[in-house]
Amino acid sequence: MTNFAELPVAVIGAGPVGLAAASHLVERGLTPLVFEAGPAVGHAVRDWGHVRLFSPWRFNVDGAARRLLAAAGWHAPDADGVPTGRDVVERYLAPLAALPGMAPHLRLGARVVAVTRLGRDKARDDGRDAAPFAVVWRDAAGIERRSLARAVIDASGTWTRPNPMGVDGLAVPGEAAAADRIAHGLPDVLGRDRDRHAGRHVLVVGGGHSAINVVLDLLRLREEVATTRVTWALRRPGIERLLGGGLNDQLPERGNLGTAALRAIETGAVTLLAPFAAEAIARDGDGLTVEARQGETPIRLAVDRIVVATGFRPDLSLARELRVALDPVVEAPPALAPLIDPNLHSCGTVPPHGARELAHPEAGFYVAGAKSYGRAPTFLMATGHEQVRSIVAEIAGDHAAASRVELVLPETGVCNGGPAAPVRDAPKATSCCGTAA
Known about the structure:
The protein is α/β, with parallel strands linked by helices. It folds into two domains: 4-160 and 312-403, FAD/NAD(P)-binding domain, CATH 3.50.50; 179-308, FAD/NAD(P)-binding domain, CATH 3.50.50.60. It has eleven helices and 16 strands. It has helices spanning 16-27, 43-47, 63-71, 85-97, 194-197, 209-224, 252-266, 337-340, 355-358, 381-395, 399-403, and strands at 9-12, 32-36, 106-108, 111-117, 133-138, 144-149, 151-154, 182-184, 201-205, 229-233, 271-273, 276-284, 287-294, 297-303, 305-308, 365-367. A hairpin with a 2-residue loop joins β12 and β13. It starts with 8 loop residues before the first strand and ends in a 34-residue tail after the last helix. The relative contact order is 0.14. Residues 413-437 have low confidence and may be disordered.
């Protein structure tokens, strides 16, 4: 007979939020079992390690993790310094994972493929909440294994599931066949991926901060290789949503991105197309031909490379045999969705939230971090830290701590140009960005 209370808590993903969850579990005397699909912690963060975060170190180190590291003699980075993704891994996540209280509980090269209740599929009711979770995973050799857990925190993120180029949510015809000339997310155009973009005509598709980062890096590349050309395609009309809050944004790195993007547009450093809808991609010698529409006007572009920076979406297959409730629009928990739905709320901060808002009908199963936001693009790392603090408190039976808010987010100006749209069932807010009163 399995002693439910003695089972570990499974944490899927050893990125910033997953390791924060593990830190809170260790601090509360609970045993984490952390599964990381990559060969090392922070594997997804390493992919965008060249990118500087919006927020300074003070917002990027979880409280429990800081206490565990400090007890081991860790020297914290300057709280006001703004790290790159590589800094976060090398100066924070790697030392945290190496702690004696953490390292034995990590499973690297361990890809979780499914989570279920032991002996019960989704439709079976009897004794469901008392049955342990069975986490099905494949090790680095591809061997399938199963581990039991008392609760599961899915912090696997969305990095491996980039959105396609099509405005309808699907890949456009020819997109898959041209995959070797299309990058997704945040390619390192000044470093690892330089040779693929230098001296090329690059089409960047997307209107968020990832797209801005790529465009600005390509312009820096053009200063070294003058034949580099940049065309920037926005799938929505107007540029207001990508400009950021400028000096009004308490995360100045984010505001600066918007300011720099506007300058590039005004000076003609980039060719701007908006609204843009790709309809087909075809190979043309060493390049690509893109059939599209700019508004109602058909256009044809000859480019060498495409960067699709249109955001990410969650992989929902892991929880197919669990009772999960998701908003039909953003694919986030129903209580969280109205706070982050980009159709209603386009800002960079939302009210702090925790176990209550992230709960699913499957007791003991939680999704945290970027994946908890589904398709919404407004996630901040500090929000994930607050999520897992609350979730772990709930798992530990400390309901008072689970319901308490222990996070103050920076104010942001990353909002729609006009008045804030009404937010369905949202807490009262003091600003367009929904910072709780």
